[in-house]
Structure formats: structure tokens, C-alpha cells
Amino acid sequence: MASYKPTNIPVYPKLGEKVTEETLYWKNYKTPIQIKEFGAVSNIHFSPVTPYNFAVTAFTRIHLYGLLSQEPVKTFTRFKDTAYCGRFRSDGQLLVAGCEDSVVRLFDVSGKVALRMFKGHTKAVHVTDFTSDRYQILTGSDDYTCCLWDIPNSAQLNTYQEHTDYIRCGVTSQLNRDLFVTGSYDHSLKVFDARVDKSVMTINHGHPVESLLLYPSEGLLVSAGGRYVRVWDLLKGGQPLVSLKNHHKTVTCLALSSNGQRLLSGSLDRHVKVYNTTSYKVVHNFDYPAAILSLALAPEDESIVVGMTNSILSIKHRKPSEEAKETAGHQRRRPSYRVYAHRKSYVPKQDDYLVSKPVRQHLAKYDKQLKKFNVSKALDTALETWIRGRKPEITVAVIRELDRRGTLKNALAGRDEQELSRLLSFLIANLVDARFAPVLITAAEMILDIYQSIIGQSPVVDKQLLHLQSLLERELDYQKDLLEVLGMLDTMFASSLPKIELPCSGISTSNGLPQGQSTASRPQILAA
Amino acid sequence: MVEHGDVRVVHKGGSKINFREPALSTDSRFLLCASGESVKVFSTATEECLHALQGHTDLITGVLLRPSNHLQAYSCSLDGTVRLWDFTDGILIRTYSIGYPIYGIYASAKHEGVIFIITPMHTDTNSELFQLVAVHLPQCGEQLVEAKELSAVLSNISSNPAASAFGREGQYIVSAKPLQLEVYFFKKHKSYSFFLKKDNQKGGKNTFTCITCHPTEDCIASGHEDGKIRLWRNFNHRKEYTYSTLHWHHSAVSSLRFTPEGTNLLSGGVESVLVQWRYNQESQRDFLPRLGGAITHISVSPDGALFCTSHSDNKITIIQSCVKVSAVIQGLVKGDRIRTDLMIEPRSKALVLNGKPGHLQFYSLQRDKLLYNLDIVQQEYIHESGLEQFEVVMAAFDASGSWLATVEERKQKAPELELNLKLWAFDDQKQSFVLNTTISAPHEGRITALCFPHVSDGQTTMLVSTSRDGHFKAWQLAAPAHTEDEGPSWSCDFLGAYHSLVPECCCFSADSSLLAVGFQEVVTVWTPASWELLTTLSQPPGAVRDLCFGRLSCSKYLLGATTSRLLCCWNLLTCSLEWVTSMDVSLLLADPLSENMAAFCFEAGSTDLFVFKPGEPRPLFSHKALCSGRVTHAVFVPREVMLESCDEASQWLNCSHLYFLTQSMDLLTFITKAEEDKLTASSKQLVVSDDVAMTPFHLLLGKHRDQLENPQAESRLSVEPIRQPSSSAGINELLQMPAHVLPSASFLCSMFVQSLLISVNKPSEQNKEKEEEMESEKEEEDSDGEMESRISRPEHMPSGESGCAAPALTKEEVRELRRLKKLDHSWMKGLLD
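The joint structure predicted for all components is written out below.
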């Protein structure tokens, strides 16, 4: 006696992007915390020392946030105009920021009033940074100059006037106290050495440079400007290594993940892309609600902080790792587990007579009903909200099975308003899905046949039927458009392919789109 | 063209075992079933066929135990004879010649020396009217007896044996006509008839399908077309009869049986569910679902221990009375429509074709046994007539047998056609095929042909399918696109078309460098390496129906059969037509091991076979009028051992057998004279010759026999247990005896244990005297023990005898004597007596 064969649920190829380890890693963040700032968030900088506070520069203020706090732990408000580029020193004690009023202010993290005010620029200062010896400050300004300042006596050490447009980004070397790089809207990057009066290297980016990043090894320099992210090899004299064009609007900010393996870029097109730094392929993508101006990652990638033009600061924290969860759960489960293991570990002795118990076949609910030929109940179980919403393929497979048994009509008939509207809403949700269409069209036709007499009696059902009709009309138009496009493509391919000598004209590999598992690579015209 | 007398067409295996109700022996150990022209005796415990009772010359239509002797059985046949058999030994006891074709047989313990048979009412065999005739069997010792005392009992009855039955203690006989129940009482010589209306109110059909009678009460159970069972009572009055109705089956009840005590009623039908009704408590039912094909017959053993059901898929299921399946005897399934080609599985050399619905069956031709069924569709089969089911329509193996491709389809209508292409990989661990890829809707139209290239060494990675949608597709085995744990799967590699013509057939050349696809009138030749169209060949008018590349030395030829009754041979080197001949080829086949090709031609209602080499003008072999109707399924089966026949006519059979299925679904093959002689010789001489395989049984028994046969070869010290001349004959006898008549194993066991002991003792004898002493003491104890069990045999004296026989004997000789006595073969003497 053969056992009951359960309904075959076809496995459809997963649509959309493939799940890789990378996506799992980057998906493992909680839902973002959103904080409204006073204006567009132009810069975010993490303190290099614990507790890893971060400074958020927005409009005329700089807020300091704790890593897990949602309220600012500290606020610097002594700016006359829009503040720019609030950055921590490498010991986390001092913070420097530029301002629209051309004054560079230096703050003690614990104080409120500026310790030093560096005046000398004539226009807004967008770039500020500490050199690696902690005693100097680099600034870059819209007056086309960049300066080095001494902190103890707040004196201007040097001024470089090589750029021919606004300087909007700059970074100091962490290994050498004299080296720094600036990027300007004149499309060029310049590497300066404080020991000489001129730039030592000039690199043409090709677009106004918005952001700069040095690798921890400082052999590679990353620049962002226009839609491009470019990587330069500094050791080879600024040779271009790779050019990435994955955004469709200006790239505004760059960040490196903590282990230096991934590069992140944020853009006005509202995306943050994650690149693998060995292959320079995009491995993940984050979507944000508004154009992104600034981006920063906490050490160990514990959180991603993004600032946007709509003055929203979005903070994503990493979920606690699985191991921590497991150890917590383990404690609770232990006693019952021990009992279970004891029974399991019983090894029959040599002359024990083993009584084998027939293995009970586990059947899904709908299969149990199908086995008993309860067709309506089987359809009801398959239409349960959970299955209907999450796994429509199960519902469709049950409908297909009922159709195969010739009892679909019986299963669909005799339903009240509520059940019918449930059926119709399932049809509306899934009818135009190419994977399910052949099965569901049969079902839809049967429903119309059965219930045509009651049309007009229930406003709910009537509304859904009208919805279904409009859905089908839209789908028909859509399919017609697709066919037109296909025809155009065929013409183009036919004219572009070289003529083949042999008397065969009917071959065109391009037309025969490789069909894999999916049934409907060619659009099907639905008969309404 | 010459007819060759020394190559003969023979039936090969796979006979129908579900034609008539099987009979279970009284002790439930044997099952007798009519199978073509012989009665097969199966063991109910092991499912093995013990022997076939051969003698009838036409289809056997009934098997029945003789009521007066439970070791004998009657069988009746369309050849007009009833034969009486001793089925345990397979001996024909008597043949009663009746003279008319017999369609069914009944007997009752009450009617000694009389059997009841169903024969046509008129002598011409085409008559639709049948009668029940009582035959008095003459009592005489002759082998062939002519039974002349015939007397008609009932006339105008159904030819179906299930439609008539004996009543309680043989007092009356009941027969059902389409809408009438007729009861004939033997005592009163009177018959009553009860009629039913054609249709009842609900539209069900009241037609009778089968009938059975309660063994101890006056109750008749009848099955009906609409699935109802009626229990008739009080039918010895014309007016006051009553019936009650039971209804569970949703379509016709095909068989009904009461258990011997009358406590249960068994019924079965298309649903393939055996229903057991409690007699008088009909609301209580037991079910045994999913038995396989539709139940056609149910039979019950006389002791009630076993039931057995015959199924439409050529299967007999043996069921214990606790409603549990205990054994399944499965014959070659020969459905009405074999949709797939006949194929040979390259690994096991099993014949593969459609089996149970939605399955492929693997049938061993050597052992004439079904190996297993492979579930292709993997869906619950709904037993309901008129339902459109998924059918396996096409299957193909690759050359190494590691891949199997199957196509299943449902619904014939074009817009609703459901197609699945499945690819199965052979799993070495499971020794079976495992589903690798399912491609739903691989084409938009029906698939017309499917073929793998013939790469023998490497892994097959390509499959070509052609379809009515005007395309052919090449499917390729591809490594998974992403580094996940999934294995490689198949996906579409190329889609080809030619002037929107419909491709009908495709074929790979012997080295797989060329693919020929027949697009109606045009044959296109492609190279699979780059998918370029190399050339086109055509011979209008008439579409190409079948394509075949030559093999080996003839691999430059491409043969095509067209619908305009032409067989064309193209030379691929010159791209020109080599020769063409006019014949209506229904099937073209190439032998995979030689250059030979077989063409089955349909000519004037029957099929002719031509075997030829594409390069030679004269056919090697031809056979006119092979069978009636078209042959559409045939296969070359490679031989295990090559024949070395030099005879010109049978040379083509040297490498392969040729099997084919006729329109009536008979599996036939060709056999040479030499082979036939060998077969008959081997069947005559059942004695085990020296080239018996080294089975464990042979190791035990054969070694012993060797010792018996060449005692001189043994060392002086070795024991020569028995010098009786009858001993080797006794062992021969033992080997020829059917296993079920042998003495119990304890007899055999002691003998084998003894024979083993000797070889162990030998070294110890030579080496240590002390041990010998101890052993001999032990043996004395042993022999004492044996004596007790053999008290009834006076010729064996207690062990004291050896002591007084001769004091001069050495110790060794005494031991020899003892051992000699212990090897007791008296049971064999008993057998010989």
C-alpha cells in the first residue's frame, strides 16, 4: 500500500537579488533611529576613543551623541552662521569646526565656549582637520586657500593658494604629520607636504571633488566627485586604480568599514553603496528617504549613521550577535534538554528485541483535508491569512491540485460573502503574477461562472470584481507595450546581426531568451 | 528476399496475470493464476513463481481448486479443454476435452463429478450469447478424456465469470444479466428472475457488474455500475423478495466476495480501495486504500487467512485478513497506451517503459521480473474514470545511464496543456534515479522528440527537445550560478527554429558532432559545438517521420523515413541522396553495437521487418507479416555475451536482441535456432551441473559432494563417510526437489555441521594426541545425544558396538567409524522409498 503523496509545492526561482553572506552581514541592522536636526546634516565624525561619541554638524550647531543615546549629550551652539566639518582630535579631547563666517573654532569636548578662534580666511571654511601630531589644524576655505594653524598660539603657519576653486574636502595623513590632501571644485586633488611650500602631487579627478578618504595604509586615496568614486594609488605617483560609477547623482560622502575591507559611498541619489575593496564590486546597497550628505560608521561597524538634506539623522545599530542570544536561551532550556538527551542516548543491547514503530507521515493541514477529499476545507486551509500572504505558492498549488482532481468547481462554490471576498482579494493580489497566472485564470473563470448570478447583491464583492477588471485591463495594456518593445528589439537585433551565408534565416539566439526554470519569460496575453 | 526459417519470433515474458481471478490454495501457501496459455503457481510468502503449468494451447479463462481434492485444480481455456492439475508438483493429471471454447468455470462441493462452464450458445465463436453448461466428468484413468455429457443449466448469460455464482452449499446458482438477476434452484429445477429499472431517480445506473453469494445464509450480494451493492434476501419467492443497498463506491463495483465464514463482505472497484463490510453491521467498514490500479478481482483463500486482489496494472496483491498487505506479485505493466518508447537502462539493462500511471517501470528481461517503478509525476493518483491525469509521454536515457529525462503532460487541448520536463540523476548510493531539475512548461507546444548525445566516456551535459511550437531547444547542465550548496542543474542553452516549420524528430550522430532535426519535409543538420546550421537535406513530398544516423563504419549515412512511404539514405560527406526505397516505415532503429538498422514497415495490415546495413543494398534479414497492425515500439537490447554465429541470416542477432511491442501489447523477440536448442536443453535437464555459480549453498553442499565424488583425492587421514552408491543420487535428488517438499532444516543442518567439523578436525588430528582424546570423548557425548533422537532406528547400535568390533583397530579408525555412523543419510533413503 503506497502512502499518500503530499501536494507538490513547486519551488520557484527566487526573484531579486541573491542572498550572499555580504547581504546577511549588512542586513543585520535594526530599524533606523531617526532624529530631526535643525538643518541639513553636513558632517558626521566619530570620536576615535571610547565611548565613541559622534559629532553631528547641522546648520549652526554641532551635536555630540553617545553611541546608544537618542538625545545629544552635548551641544555646541556658539556659531554665528552655518557650521561645517566638526571633527575630533585623535585623543577625542578637542573638536574643531569651520563656519560660514570664515572663523575656525576649536572646542574642548567638555566645555562650551571656543578655546581658540582662528581668523584668517576670507570666506566660508568647509574643511577642518587635525594633523597627526595633534598640534596643528588644517583648514580649507571657499577663498581657494588652505591653511595650517598652530593650536597652542593660534598662529597661521602656512597658506597654500594652489587651488582655483572652492576647497570642499581635505584629509590629513595619520602616519605623517606633514602630509595632507585637499580636494577642490577645480576638479583636482592636491597632496601637500608642510615642509615645502608647494603641493607635491596633483591628481585630476575630472569632476568637482566632494569627498576624500585615505586608506589606513595610506597607499590608496579615494575621491568622490560627480557620479564617480575614484581610487588612486599614491605610491605610484597618483596613478588611477579604479573608477566606480554606481550612483546616478553626485557622490557626497565616503567611509571605510572598520576592517578596511569595504568601502561605503553615499550620494544625493539617496543610496549608500557598499563596495568590496578587493574586487571593487558593489556588494550591498542601502536605501534612504532623502539625498545623503554625510555618512559615518562606528568602530566595528556597530552602527551606520547617515545625515540627509531633509535634516534627518538616521542611526542604524547592529543587532546583537547570534551567539549572545544563544547563550541566553541555553540557560533556560537546559533541564528539558537533559531529559530528552537521556532518552535519546539509550542504546539497545545486543539481544533486545526492537519493536519498530511505523513512521507516521506528517502532512500539512491542507493535505490532510485533500486526503479525505474534503475539497472545500482544503481550499479554506490553503487560504488562511498566513499562507495566503506569505506563501501564495502553497495556495496556488492547492488550487492546481484541486483542478487536477476535477473538483475545483465544487471547492469554489457555496461560499458566503466573506469567504468570496477573501478569494477575490487573493486573486487580485496574485492574478498578474506570471508564475501563478495559468492556474489562477482557470479559478477566476470558474468563480465568475459560479457567482455571476449574485453580482449586484453585495457591494464588497462588486467592488472587488471591478478592481479585478481594472487590474486585468492594466495588465493587458502592459503586455501589449512589452510585445511592442520586443518587436522593436527583434528588428534591431535582426539588422545588427551579420548575414549568415547558409540558407538558414530563422535562427536568432538573441530572440530565444534563455529560459530557465521560470515558465513565463515570454509574456502571456491574458484572456479577460 | 528469403524467409529465414531458423530465426523465430517468440513471446517473451510479461504475460498478463490479472486476466482472471486467481485461486488461493486451501493452506494459503500457493496462488494459482491464469497467465496467457499457462497457469502460474506463486508462493504467497515469497512472491516467487514456483512453476508454470503448461499444456493449454489457447488463452486460459479460469482456474479453480477442485472441491473434492484440495491439492488439485481445474483450468479451462478457449481451446475447449478443461485440465486437472496437481499444482504442488506441476503435473497434468487429466485433460477433459469439451469441444467448445470455455469462458468460465464453476464447481461446487455438492455437485460431485460435475463442473459448470460458460460456453457460447452457438458454435460460431463470434456469438454474443453464452450459456452455463453442466459437464459430467467421466471417471476413468485415461489422460485424455472426452466429456460428452453436457446439459444446459442457464442460457443467455454474461460471459464474465464474475456475473455468476454458486449459492449456499451449491443449492442454487445465480447469474446476473445487465438488468436482471436469475436464480436457479437445482432441487426444484426452477429459476426466478428479478428485474431492476434501467436508471434510478438520481441518474445512477443499475446495471449489474458482479455477484457473489453468502456461504451459509440465503443472501446474494450484487455490485452495480453506480457503485451500489445490493444484498438480496428471500429470493425463493417471485414476489416477496427484498433487498438492502450499501453505498460507498463512487463508480462501478468490479468485484465482490464473502469471506469463507460469511462474516465479512469484500468489495473493490476503480477507486483501488478494498472495502471490508461487516455482514449484518454494514455501517462498520474497513478500508485498505491506494492498492495500485483499479481492482479487477478479489479472491479469498478457503481458510480465510488471505485475500488477494488483482489490479488493472497487472498486479496481484496478497492481503492478510487483518487488512494488511503482505506481498505484491507484479507483472509487466502493459497499459492500453504505451506512450514512451521502449528503452534500455544502460546500467541494469532493464527494459523501461510506462508502468503504473505516472510511473516508469524497470523490467528485467532476463529474470522476467519487474525490478521497480520510478515515480515520475509524484502526485497522488486519483482513481476516477474520465479524469485527465498526468502521463509520462517521453523518456530518454543518456549513454552512460547517469541521466534520465522525462516529459509528462496533462490535457490534450493546446491552450491548457501542462508540460513538465524532468531530469533525473542516477544516485549511486540509492541505486536509483533522483530528481535533479524540473522545468515546467519547457515548450509552448507538445514535445515531439527528446534525445541525448551518445557520449560514452565523458559526462553528458546536453539534451535536445523538439516541440510542436516550432522550436527545438538544447538544455545544458550548468554549474550553479551562485556558490550555494545546490548542485548543478539544467537550463536552456539554445533555441533553434527553421522557417517556422514544426520539428518532428531529432537524432545525434554516433560521435555527437552533428544533430539532425527533421522539420517536416526538411532535415536540418546542426553542429552542437557552435549551434550553426550546417546543411539542409530534403526529399519532398512527405514530412520526415523518423531520423537515424548510421553507426560505426556507416556513420556517414543519415537515414530518414518520410510519410510519403519513402526510406531515404543521405551521404553526409557529399550531402547527397545515396539511395531511396519505397516502403512505409513505421519505426526505424539502429543497433547501438553494430552497423545494423531495423526498419518496421507497415504493409497491407501487417508489419514486415527488414534488417539492413545502410551501406549495403541487400537486407541482411527480412521477415514478412511479423504481426498484424503497426509496430511502434521496439528496442535493441545488447547481449550479455556475444553470440558467434556465422549463419548469415542470424548474424544480426549476434550483438543484440530485438524486442518489439505489437499493437495488442505483446512483447515479442527474435530467437535463433541455436539459442532455442540451448534453452530447451537447459530446461529439460534440471540437474545442477558443475558450472553452478558459487553460492553459499553450493559452498556447503557442493563441497560435500566433491568429497563424495573424489575420495581418492583426499588425504589418507580424511574421512570417507559414505561409500554407498546411492548417496550422490540422493544429493541429486535433494537438489532437484522443490524446496517446499524437503525435510525440515534440522535434518540438513546436522549434516552440514558435520561436514564442516571434519575440515576443522584435520589439523588437530595430526598434531596433538591429547586433544584428540578429549575430542573423542566429546564426540561420544555428542553421539549419545544423537542416539536419543533416533531411537526409532534399530540398525544404529549404541556406541558400545565400536568398542567390541575389533580391538585391533587404531584410535583413528575408531574415530572414522564413529563419524561414519553420525553422517546419517537415512532421511534420503526415506525419500527414495
